[in-house]
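Section: Multi-chain targets

For targets with more than one molecule, the full set of components is provided together so that the structure can be written out for the assembly as a whole rather than chain by chain. Components appear in the order listed by the source. The example entry contains two components.
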Amino acid sequence: MISEKMRPLVENNSVIRIMFEEGNRLAAIYGRENVFDFSLGNPNVPAPQEVEDSIREILDEEESTFVHGYMSNSGYEDVRATIADSLNRRFGTSFHQGNILMTVGAASGLNIILKTLLNPEDEVIVFAPYFLEYNNYVRNYDGKIVIISPNTVDFQPNLDEFAEKITAKTKAVIINTPNNPSGVVYSDATLTRMAEILTEKEAEFGTKIVLLSDEPYRELAYDGVEVPYVTKYYANTVVCYSYSKSLSLPGERIGYLVIPDELDSSEEVFTAATIANRVMGSVNAPSLMQRVVKKCIEKGAEVNLAAYDRNRNRLYEGLLSCGFSCIRPQGAFYLFLKSPEPDEKAFCEKAQKYNLLLVPGSSFACPGYVRIAYCVSYEQIERSMPAFEKLAAEYGLKG
Amino acid sequence: MISEKMRPLVENNSVIRIMFEEGNRLAAIYGRENVFDFSLGNPNVPAPQEVEDSIREILDEEESTFVHGYMSNSGYEDVRATIADSLNRRFGTSFHQGNILMTVGAASGLNIILKTLLNPEDEVIVFAPYFLEYNNYVRNYDGKIVIISPNTVDFQPNLDEFAEKITAKTKAVIINTPNNPSGVVYSDATLTRMAEILTEKEAEFGTKIVLLSDEPYRELAYDGVEVPYVTKYYANTVVCYSYSKSLSLPGERIGYLVIPDELDSSEEVFTAATIANRVMGSVNAPSLMQRVVKKCIEKGAEVNLAAYDRNRNRLYEGLLSCGFSCIRPQGAFYLFLKSPEPDEKAFCEKAQKYNLLLVPGSSFACPGYVRIAYCVSYEQIERSMPAFEKLAAEYGLKG
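Its structure, encoded as tokens over all components, is:
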């Protein structure tokens, strides 16, 4: 009954989702508090109070037909202007509302821009480790994923291999910084060199290559690390943003695309992306949440970053003292642990014996590592430490 | 820069949208109250009070991480169960939560099920007059639209031509009842015969043909007319529903698919559609609005149908007394007027001289007619009547 394209997706239903169900199964046996589920990127920090306040104010102040009604397919003009101003204040950019397209989260934003750009067989480059769902987004438009192998020294992208793998068919490059799953923030040096390579290759092949910056974790950066704004490095950049993490609204599906004036054929791309938003059935981003975003920006709402930071420090120190090794994450809410045995899936299975649910790095095109999502309660991290210690002991690791 | 597939869409940007901009232009010149914009299907009736009440209650009662968080890609289980129960009570069906998939409105639901079903070159049959956006939805998955010509006697679908045009490549049929733009409700006799034809043709070709029932106007039916529930006529039916009109929430993008147990390979189709919801980037339907839908069903919330009905009667009687002719609409909020000259685009241009904005039937594959959307204020209808009279006089029509 189902299409050929959907068949492999049904067969390989997301590993992460299966893990989620395994967590429920274990919780039913051992009790939820004794299962240490580090598998899902579902924010545990509540939305800032400004979200609820904004919703109530909007209901008090505005007409129902305005709050819940259709607007331009690209979103409410005043919301888009507020977002542009906020970006300009924080990053020294010069955006205006005509650069902002409201979307049903960053995932829908990525789909919209890929539909806008890709012809069949066009190549899209990604850097391992990366969110494997990008493969599906690219395949939706008959593009081809080209994977750059991971640099496991510092998890900055491997730019030599990148330069080699760009071809005349390369239409887009997807980056994700702060990175899921490594927690690494791509540095100023990385983005500078990446932009140089892209500019050289555009000239060499006489093509346009669009850098898609998927940034749902932009506001989740620790130790004062700066997350460079990618449009400042390379003109042909489109930013895919979501409020899933910065306002803890993952279920609400609210985000935006930034399509800067500097992008080649910017207006045409903006128009096409707005139409793609419509014809793919989103029509527009959810209306009430668009209005909430505007109020939250005006109120300066921020998620409780300190809670994630506390988790990060506790987990990182705890794992090191067990004898595990991993790079210190600078952003997002993931820690990417080196598996003590080459087959990280076997390691995940051993971890499961201690009710520890981790995601194998193969799910991010980076075997030999596992992802630990620390968007969980601090208590879960505390309570999981003896389990991690036993797991380390099984490998003869020492703190 | 943009893809080949997007190019024609950018070139032929929606006529309805251009009309919307023309409305704004005229309003700037003549004042909003002197422009009679009947072009857009944007509900003017406010959401029922239960929507606002439900939002406030949910904020009072529930945790932020639950209300705004991720859930299963198919939606909250309790919301889906409530919807299934409500359908069962009203239509004598036997759905359960496993048949309901929450979507980002009906447009996204249609996209999801088309992605689930279509292989390239598969044919999808539609009945003129129809919402031309279906063409874009079908092309998203490289399917081919097959149009059945309109039956302008009573605007029930032309079933003889339908039977002739079904081929071994026919994968789906889209119907929309109550219909946009005709306002007609497909009758029991129509659906009975349609189901017979589909069953015969499935047997003849050894194929499965899925009937997609796009039902955003289901609750907008007048004069006590019954809108038959399509799954009761034909097993291979999927219903695409939206709360855009029944709760006046078009901007919120909240709806669902019904994938009945009776559908061939029902579980596989449900799983594939859930994955399609994820990989196309919707991920899930907006979470707060899912919760609102549940409460609104429990409270028995209904849109103010009497307001639309009053508009319908005033407009219908008014147009008839001008000498225009049209079928009396039974549902939705559209009236499909016969153009007094064969070229209905020329008629729309003449109407525009009187600040009347109507949509040509060509935009619904039905030239010779025009769509008048009466989801506007009663006052607009009242005030527009002298303009319609002058327009009728220009054609020498008599009441």
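Residues 7 and 13 of chain A are 10 Å apart (CA to CA).
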